[in-house]
Amino acid sequence: MPEKILIVEDEQTLQETLAYNLTRQGYEVETAGDGIKALDLARKIHPDLIILDIMLPGIDGFEVCRILRQEMTTPVLMLTARDDEIDRVVGLEVGADDYLTKPFSMRELLARVKAMLRRVRLMREEFSQTTGEVSTPSQLLTFGNLVVDITRREVRLNDQVIPLKPKEYELLLFLAQHRGQVLSREFILERVWGWDYIGDSRTVDVHVRWLREKIEDHPAQPVRIVTVRGAGYRFEG
C-alpha cells in the first residue's frame, strides 16, 4: 500500500504543487487548509507523514503539532515562511521532526520526505527481522508495565499512553528492538537520526535523558536504559 502523506497548507497554489509532486512519487496524499481540518484528517486517516505549515488560519501549526503530539507520533515536517531561529526551535520543541524554510526547492522537500519515511520503514523492517514476525495492528513489544505498540507508534506505561516526541519514540523503539545489545552513540545516531544528520552524539544523550524521565521509576538510577561506560547504551526492558 502507498504511504499516506497529509499536507497542511493554506496557500492553495503551494498546496496543489506539493500534492501533485508527492502523488507523482507514488504517495497517497490528503490536504487541509486550516488547523481544525488538519486535526480531523490526521485522526481519521492516520498518515505516515504530515507536512505542516506554521502560518495557518485559526489554529497555527505550532498548536496543531502540539495537539497531535498528545495523540500520535506521526513524523512532522514543518514549513515556515521566515528564516527565524525562534520558529525552528519552537517547532522542534512542540514535536516537529524536521523543518524547511520557504522558499524551498521541491527536490529538497522530496528528499526530506523520503529520508523521514525511510527511517520509519527501517525500524519496522528491523522489528520484523528481530522477531521473525510482521508488524500488525495487534503487534506489541511488552516489557513488564512498558508496552511499545509498533503500528500505532504508541508507548504505554501502566496502561497509560506516554506523550513522546517522534525522536523519543524512534529511539525507544530502536533500543527495544536490540534488547540486551550494547549500542554505541554513533551507531544509534546513524540509525535513528540518519547518516546525513548534522549533529553529534550528545543528541543521543539528551534524548536518552528525556526518555528516562518518562519510563524509569528513578531516572537517576535507570534500570531500563543502562549506560555502558565507554561503549554506549543497553536496553534491559
Report the structural category: alpha/beta
Mean pLDDT over all positions: 86
Query: Can you count the helices?
Result: 8
The CATH class of the largest domain turns out to be: Alpha Beta
Radius of gyration: 18 Å
Name of the CATH superfamily of the largest domain = Response regulator
Strand content: 15-25%
End-to-end gap: 32 Å
- Percent of residues in helices: 40-55%
User: Any idea what the shape is?
Assistant: globular
Q: What's the CATH architecture of the largest domain? A: 3-Layer(aba) Sandwich
Count structural domains.
2
CATH topology of the largest domain: Rossmann fold
Order of helices and strands: EHEHEHEHEHEEEEHEHHEE
* Beta strand count: 12
Strand arrangement across the biggest beta sheet: 2-1-3-4-5
Sequence stretches where pLDDT stays below 50 over 5 or more residues: 134-138
Sheet with the most strands? 5 strands, parallel
